[in-house]
Design a protein that fits this description.
CATH architecture of the largest domain: 3-Layer(aba) Sandwich
Shape: elongated
Number of helices: 12
Number of strands: 6
CATH topology of the largest domain: Rossmann fold
Distance between the termini: 8 Å
Oligomer: single chain
Order of helices and strands: HEHHEHEHEEHHHEHHHH
Mean pLDDT: 82
Length: 264
C-alpha cells in the first residue's frame, strides 16, 4: 500500500521555521505552474514521505528574495527547477537558480531540471524565449548580474532532466518522485544507530526475502525481547524501501489491527 503523510509530518512549507531541514527544493514561476504541474509534483513527493520546500506565498512585484529561500536551498539535498516559458521573466526565479548552481559546485547538492513547456535549447539561450527576458533584466539589474544568470541557465540546460512533452502529469510526477527517492535513499521511518554485528543478519534476511523474485514472501524474525529484532527490521526496511514504488512500516501490527482502519 502507498504510504501517506500529512504536510505537518513532512515539514513541507513555504514560510516555515528558520533552519528547517528539507530534502527537495522546488523552484518555479507561480503563475505558470503553481496550481497544476508543480502542485502535482509537490504532492507526489509528499506521498513518498519526502520533505519538500515549496514557496506557497509568492512575492509581489519588486519584492526582494528573502534569506529564508537561500537557506532552504542550502538545507536541501536536491533542487528541482521547473522551467516554464515565463520562468526567466522572474528575477526571483533566476536568483534561486544562480544560488542553486553555486551550491552545486561547492556543496553536495544535486540539481534536476524539468523542462515544462520549453526546450533545453531555450534555457541555453539559443532561442529568444529566455534571451528576450534577460535583455529586459539588464536595464534594471545591470549587465554583470544578468551575465551570472545567463551562465547559470546555460549550465543547468546541460543537465539531464525531464520534459513534459507527450507525458501525463500524474505519470511524470510519480516517476520524478520515485527517482528522487532513489537518489535520497530515504526511509520514512526513524532509524537509530545499528547494533554491532548487524550487517551479517541484515544480509541473511535480505537473501531470504529475494526481492528480485516475483513471489510474495513472508519472513519471521523470532527471539527474546531486547535482542534487536525491531532494529533489524528497520535496517532492512531502510535498505530496501527505495526499490519499491510504495511501501509501509507498521511498528506494532497488534495495536494497529485493533483499530478499524490501518493508517500508512
Amino acid at each position: 500500500m502507498k504510504r501517506k503523510r500529512s504536510r505537518s509530518e513532512t515539514g513541507s512549507t513555504g514560510h516555515g521555521t528558520p533552519g528547517a531541514q528539507f530534502e527537495v527544493f522546488l523552484s518555479f514561476r507561480g503563475p505558470d505552474t503553481r496550481t497544476n504541474f508543480t502542485d502535482s509534483l509537490y504532492h507526489a513527493l509528499l506521498d513518498k514521505g519526502i520533505h519538500v520546500f515549496m514557496d506557497k506565498k509568492g512575492i509581489d512585484v519588486g519584492e526582494e528574495i528573502s534569506p529564508e529561500i537561500f537557506q532552504a536551498i542550502n538545507d536541501s539535498k536536491i533542487c528541482i527547477p521547473i522551467f516554464s516559458k515565463e520562468y526567466a521573466s522572474s528575477s526571483w526565479c533566476l536568483r534561486e537558480l544562480e544560488h542553486m548552481m553555486e551550491c552545486r559546485k561547492t556543496e553536495e547538492l544535486e540539481v534536476l531540471p524539468i523542462f515544462y513547456d520549453v526546450e533545453p535549447s531555450d534555457v541555453k539561450l539559443e532561442t529568444g524565449v529566455y534571451r528576450d527576458a534577460l535583455t529586459q533584466h539588464k536595464g534594471k539589474r545591470g549587465a554583470e548580474i544578468v551575465l551570472r544568470w545567463e551562465e547559470a541557465l546555460k549550465e543547468v540546460a546541460g543537465i539531464k532532466g525531464w520534459d513534459t512533452k507527450n507525458k501525463g502529469h500524474g505519470k511524470l510526477t510519480r516517476l520524478v518522485a520515485h527517482q528522487v527517492l532513489l537518489k535520497l535513499k530515504a526511509s520514512p521511518i526513524h532509524l537509530s544507530d545499528p547494533l554491532v554485528g548487524m550487517h551479517q543478519s541484515v544480509d541473511e534476511v535480505i537473501n531470504l526475502l529475494r526481492v528480485e523474485s516475483k513471489d510474495i514472501r513472508l519472513v519471521g524474525i523470532c527471539g527474546i525481547g531486547g535482542i534487536g529484532k525491531t532494529t533489524l527490521a528497520k535496517v532492512i526496511y531502510h535498505k530496501l524501501s527505495a526499490e519499491f514504488e510504495s511501501c509501509s512500516f507498521i511498528l506494532d501490527i497488534r495495536q494497529a489491527s485493533e483499530s478499524s482502519v490501518l493508517v500508512f
